[in-house]
Amino acid sequence: MKREADADALYEIIKTVSIVALVLGQPETLGWIGATDTLKFHLPEWETTARHRGEKQVQIGKKSGVKERVSLVFDRVMPGHRKYFGFSRKIAYIAIFVGLLILLAVILGLAIGLSKKSSNHQNLPLGSQTYTGDLTYYGPGLGACGITSSDTDHIVSISHFTFDAVSKGSNPNANPLCGHKLRAVRNGNSIDLTVVDRCVGCQPTDVDVSPGAFKQLADPSLGRVEVTWAWLPPVPAT
């Protein structure tokens, strides 16, 4: 630093003396002045290097200005000499960064989950449309809705996809679909059925009924047939 200051001082002295020599009309008094109409300086190599270094530092300073300002802001918010929950500022920065990443992951996960759930509801038979699926029968008993049924009752077991989608808690007896009625139609025959159970092996539009109900729509020996059905009012809400 002292050497650079000396170089600047020497530069100013040479410039001043040269100007005075030109004014007096005696440029020959200085050997490093080339002509009266042009002012040229032959500075020592060490001085030129020092001045070049100074200009380079100024350029670097301009480029690093933004970085320095950001650093100043962080220093004001979280001074480097303080401890944060017993850790250094660097560790605190890392902890904050990791925490933000975890929070972002949770938000994205919830958003994707809600989007999928909404999409699944749109594909389930929960509206006033007419649906087509497989009709099967099973041996009734105590159903998921807490109701005991017999082979001759007009009851239906709804797909677990649909049943679970509208569940309001862990108790299946309280499922909103329990007690709802639907009308199944096949080859001009129809029957009204009450939801009492949850069918694990059924696809969303399939219905599983009692043997007596199946017999009114198809020959029991067929086991599985296609059926059209729709909810009776009030239609279950999605």
TrEMBL record:
Entry annotated with the keyword Thylakoid: no
Annotated keywords: Membrane, Signal, Transmembrane, Transmembrane helix
Transmembrane segments: 91-114
Top-rank taxon: Eukaryota
PANTHER family named in the record: PTHR31836, SRCR DOMAIN-CONTAINING PROTEIN-RELATED (PTHR31836:SF28)
Protein name: RlpA-like protein double-psi beta-barrel domain-containing protein
Species this protein is from: Letharia columbiana
